[in-house]
Amino acid sequence: MHPRITSSRTATCWITACLTFAVIACGGDAAAPGGTGGASATSAAEGSTGSGETVTPVGTPGLVDVSEASTIAKLGVPFDANRKDLVGPDKHGAMYGRKPEVVPVVDGEALYVAWRDHTEEASAKTFLVRLEREGAAVHVAHAYELMSLGVLLGLAMGPDGHLYYATGSPDPDITVEDPPVGEYRSDIARLLKFDRAGEVVFDIDVDPARAKSSDKPEQVIAPGKASTGRLLVGGDEVMLIHGINTPPDENGTRHQKSLSTLFDRGSGEVVRTESLWVSHSFDQRLLHDAGGFIEFHLGDAYPRTVVFGRTTVDEVSSGYTLMHVKGETGANNTYTRLGNFVQSTSKAGGGLYDYLGLVATERTTETTLLEGAKKVAGARDLALVRVRRDFELMDKKDMPSYLDTSGLEPVALSSGGKDEANYLRWLTSYGAGKSVKHFAERPKLVKLAGGNVLVLWERWSYDVFDGTFGMVLDAAGEVLLKEKLVTDSHLPRGDDAIPWGKQAVWVTGDEDKGQLWLHLVNASLEYERFVVD
């Protein structure tokens, strides 16, 4: 019997396991607009083994050189999205982001890939491999075992060639009383910086470091809760973002929201702990440009929107609405998937609208579920939104003042009990008219060398996976190459596709053969795959 928690009003939440993704966010009544938490309740963390024991950190404080294990299979078992992440559009778990599993970063012509071991279900191990191309092959040039708390939160590379790695604890023993309010705990999240030789520059215990940096900052509780994690280097800072549970409210309810921490890139000192407020934040992305970091969130409860905003050392902006989400306040189902937020042109040479935001959302504005469906009310299409370069100078309440609405008819809908409108540029036509042909899932947006933008997504025919598709846009978001099937392999939900040379790359595992697969797509939608043993 699952534990039952009563929300701040009358709704009841259930902790539900969905395939390999434990979901802890359930429908509930909204928290007050001025609150800091989410609008629904939870009493335990993802990743509990049922024994009440926490995962013990493995490795040393830093890295262990394990290059003598010359193949992926000798290191462990990488996560296999083609076997272990098969949730489609009508599955409960697909409503939430997924914590990272296989994270690549580019180092010139090489790739570093951090990946979490799945040899055993409760394994805490994470490995880092450097992959180098040699002719028509890619091989493991070096390997490390990383100190791990059990959850991979992100990997990033700085301009000086140093690597940054974030790990978190599954934090399985959360109750209403534990951890107490104001208790900042060790080994709940850590940020490490190290060089290519594995020499550790700093190792930051995040929760205590946050506590020392400001007056009563939010606690790090269950990092990655019902969401994902991202780590990004930009300018002189490093930003870590992930979901968390909040301290309990007056009714003993722990909510879900996101938490961001800004670190000094050189010293690791925490320089900002305030976060953009989104309730709940079920998926997050990060972008850095000349103005600082931009957060991108899928929010479900209040405000019921896809949100973006600016975070710098000096301030955190208010949230700007990219699109309103149909449905009632507090309902967990957003009928929407988060894509990415990119700067498609430079401010020096670009147009007025430098930013592109991608989502996959239902074209219908109705919330009545399809006959026999559990989560879908209509076909799900890809949609693009163009955002002004100077959005911070616009009044956030004056949507769509910061959006490009040229040539668009507003899409009227009811969101959170209010009449709203969206300004979406549809890239697919799965739900045009009364058609319910297909569903776009796991959307990804990658800015390629040369200025074009690659869109990737999975297409589903209800509960049947049709394959991974792609299209190419110009910097203004106009379609250059139409929808095309690129591979029959899945896209990972929790990991990004990134630019690598003139191509985009994403990495998945093959658990049976003990391999990493590098999937590459270029600006002509040509696909190739490298297998790394």
Determine the N-to-C terminus distance: 43 Å
Kindly estimate the percentage of residues that lie in beta strands according to DSSP. 35-45%
- CATH class (first level) name: Mainly Beta
**Helix content bin:** under 10%
CATH topology: Neuraminidase
Overall pLDDT: 88
Structure description:
It is a single chain. Strands 5-9-8-7-6 form a five-stranded antiparallel beta sheet, with no helix packed on it. Strands 10-11-12-13 form a four-stranded antiparallel beta sheet. Mean pLDDT is 88; it is low at 1-60. The chain is mainly beta and 533 residues long. 3% of the residues lie in helices and 44% in strands. It has one domain (4-47, 58-532): Neuraminidase (6 Propeller). The chain starts with a strand and ends with a strand. The chain contains three helices and 35 strands.
How would the blueprint of this fold be written?
Layout: E1 4-6, E2 12-14, E3 16-18, E4 21-23, E5 58-65, H1 72-75, H2 81-84, E6 102-107, E7 110-116, E8 126-134, E9 137-148, E10 151-157, E11 163-168, E12 189-194, E13 200-205, H3 206-213, E14 229-234, E15 237-245, E16 256-264, E17 270-272, E18 281-289, E19 292-299, E20 305-311, E21 320-324, E22 336-343, E23 355-362, E24 380-387, E25 411-415, E26 418-422, E27 425-426, E28 439-447, E29 453-461, E30 464-473, E31 479-487, E32 498-500, E33 503-510, E34 515-522, E35 527-532
Antiparallel strand pairs: 1-2, 3-4, 5-9, 6-7, 7-8, 8-9, 10-11, 11-12, 12-13, 14-15, 15-16, 16-17, 18-19, 19-20, 20-21, 22-23, 23-24, 24-27, 25-26, 28-29, 29-30, 30-31, 32-33, 33-34, 34-35
